[in-house]
Amino acid sequence: MTSRTWCSSFGSCDSSNATWHIPTTTNESGITILGADFPVSANEGCRDPSSTVPGMIRICVDWGRKRGHFIFGNDGRGKRCFVKTKDDETNWDGGWCGGDNGVRCWVSEWKEAKCSW
Predict the structure, then answer these.
(1) Residue 64 has pLDDT above 70, yes or no
(2) Which residues, other chains included, contact 56 with Cβ-Cβ below 8 Å and sequence gap of 6+?
(3) What is the pLDDT of residues 77-103, one digit of tens each?
(4) Which of 10, 23, 30, 42 could form a disulfide with 3 if both were Cys (CB 3.0 to 4.6 A apart)?
(5) Which residue in 95, 59, 94, 55 sits closest to 76, CA to CA?
(6) Are 3 and 111 in contact (CB under 8 A)?
(7) Where are the alpha helices (DSSP H) in 1-117?
C-alpha cells in the first residue's frame, strides 16, 4: 500500500488518499493475473473498504506502531499484516505542501509482513 498524508500546522493529519496495490501474479495453472491499484483510506483505525477494494472486508491502520492488518473475505488466510517500510516527506501536490502555509506532506510505503500482534 502507498499512502499520502498531509498534516496542517494545527496538528491534524489526513491519510485518506492511499492506494492498495495488488501485484501481477501467476497462479498454479500458469495463468497470469494482472495486478491493479485501488483507492483506500489509510487513516488511523479500522474500516470496511469493500466498496473500493474487491474482496477486502477489513483494513486497520495503527500509525503509532507503524503497522496494520487486513482481511480478504474469500482467500481463506484470515488476518494478514503489513508494516510501514518507508516514509518520505514530499511535495507531491505540486506546491501545496511545504512553504509558508505550514502544511507538511509524506508518501509512505507499507509492505506485507508476518503477523506478530
Answers:
(1) yes
(2) 20, 40, 49, 50, 70, 71, 72, 73
(3) 789 999 999 988 887 556 667 767 778
(4) 42
(5) 55
(6) no
(7) none
